[in-house]
Amino acid sequence: MKTYEAIDRIGKAIIEDGLCEAIVLKGSIGRGDDDAYSDIDMYVVVAKEKYSVFMDRRLSYLKTYGEIVYCTENDFGVKQMLAIYENALHIDLYTTTMEQIDHNNPVKVYYDPKQLFAGYEVKHQPYTEEDLVKLFDDSLYYFVEADSAYARKNYPWTAHILSAAIAGSVKLMRNRYDPDYAYLGLKKINEILPMEEYELVEEAYANLNKEGFQKANQCILDMLELVLSDMKEEVRNACNLKFFAWCKKNVNVTLFI
Question: Of 23, 32, 47, 248, which one has the fewest beta carbons inside 10 Å?
Fold first, then answer.
């Protein structure tokens, strides 16, 4: 697979330079659910005294794999160099110290001669009950927000707002099967949800257009109904059920007309 070929070429170039203490992989590779289409999240642990030298050499490491067609830098608290290659492979190269490494996600160790990651434990927190309630209520709110755009005949903006309602609903649906990674939302959702539920998501997105908004609205309501049917009673009762009942009654009647 091209991902592992890239990891080996870039990883070996970094190791041979003698500046890094460890290399680990996060994202789908770290979780062990990567496939031929996955990107690479590579974290290179560098000692503070070697940090600036390593930063200056990142692009040369990345070029050991192949021709780069796009490259940019970001700072998420940890410095990232993002590169896309001629074959469309995408790699995020993060430069970090051991103190900066978070424990939110699993890692796959590529290089760790000092056993820095021997005691690494994931400390990711699934959605709390308060998070679930907020996702539910926010998904309903978008109906009213999108209605204003629809009334103004701004259909692209309507679609954008409703897509947020779908995304929130999908996180709630995913939480029923995959609570540890519900925050990933739509990512690989076709592999998480039962087919009939996934088809509901597909139908909602397929109808984010002038002719299909009414159908998309109904799909969102059906998704939220599914979520409510599986919620613990105390969580369900904390959701804005009055607003939900109002939305069911008024979507495509008072709203979106």
Answer: 32
Question: What are the tokens at 203?
Answer: 């139908």
List average pLDDT for each run of 10 residues in the chain, which is 257 residues long: 94 96 96 92 95 96 97 95 97 95 91 94 89 96 94 97 97 96 94 97 97 96 96 96 95 88
Strands (E) in the chain, as ranges, are: 20-26, 40-46, 68-75, 79-85, 90-96, 108-111
0.85 cut: is pTM over it? yes
Question: 59 and 81 in contact (C-beta within 8 Å)?
Answer: yes
Q: Which residues contact 95 (CB under 8 A, 6 or more apart)?
A: 44, 46, 51, 54, 55, 58, 78, 79, 80, 81
Q: What confidence score (pLDDT) does residue 257 get?
A: 87
Helices (H), ranges, 32-126: 51-62
DSSP code for 63: T
Q: How far apart are the first and last CA of the chain?
A: 51
CB 28, CB 40: distance < 8 Å: no
